[in-house]
Each structure stands twice: as C-alpha cells, then as structure tokens.
Design goal:
Length: 144
C-alpha cells in the first residue's frame, strides 16, 4: 500500500489569513486536480497530517471542498495522531501500519524529526501548493 501524508495549508489551501476556513470555499482548484492525478497515477491513499484533522468542522469543510474533484472519504486511510512534531506523528502512524510500504509527506513546512526520512518529504511553497513539478515529484517518489 502507498500513502500520501497530506498537509492542507500551503498545499491545497493557498490562503493564509484570518478568515473562518471552515465556512469558506478556499481550496485551490488546480492543486486539488493535481492531488487527484497523484492518487490516480499511484493508487495511493491519503492520510491527513494537517492541523485540520483536529477540528470536526474543518474535516467536514475539507471533504465538501474535495468532493467536486472526486477526492472522497474512500481516498483517505485516516489521520495521524497528535504526538508533537509532524514527522514523528507520521512515523508513529506508520509503525502501527506495516501494510504501508511506500509513503511521502507533502507539506509547506520542513520537519525537524530525527526519525523521519528526509527524502520522503516533498515541500511546497505556501503561495503555490501542488504545482505540476510537485505532482511529478510525488508520482516519482511513490512509484520508486
């Protein structure tokens, strides 16, 4: 099984302001389409590693905004535990799921974990999220 650990802000949500995100339609359409293309090309499942996982209203908003792009609940495997550093949270999730053989994390911030393999992190720029280049990197890493 392949997994893509997904951050939201700076990956598919390019707006960084004080709006009430749960009530807004703020996901970037191009980023969402590219995410769907990664899923289709690799067969990966998504694992929510974003802070959005902590708030039920944010999760509902996420699913509502992903739906027009064909990214449904069935595309998700789960969400990481609240553990501290994001890379450590991902590694804790993976430790309990040996069926995940290949994985990447897509985030707009670096990880400071000592145990997370640096080559599995694909960094986006907060203002552009999943670009064509990022999409190709994701597909390549999950296909190695």
């Amino acid at each position: 099984m392949k997994a893509l650990f997904l951050d939201i802000d700076g990956v598919v949500c390019l707006h960084k302001d004080d709006t009430n995100w749960a009530d807004e339609e703020i996901f970037d359409a191009d980023c969402c389409r590219r995410l769907k293309e990664i899923i289709e090309a690799t067969g990966c499942k998504l694992v929510l590693s974003s802070s959005w996982r902590l708030f039920p209203e944010s999760i509902r908003s996420m699913f509502r905004q992903f739906k027009p792009f064909g990214i449904t609940k069935e595309c998700f495997l789960g969400r990481t535990p609240l553990y501290g550093e994001r890379g450590d949270e991902i590694m804790a999730y993976l430790k309990k799921r040996p069926q995940i053989e290949k994985f990447i994390a897509v985030d707009d911030e670096p990880f400071y974990s000592r145990v997370f393999p640096k080559d599995r992190l694909i960094l986006t720029k907060p203002e552009s999220g999943i670009t064509e280049n990022i999409k190709e990197k994701c597909i390549k890493k999950l296909s190695e």
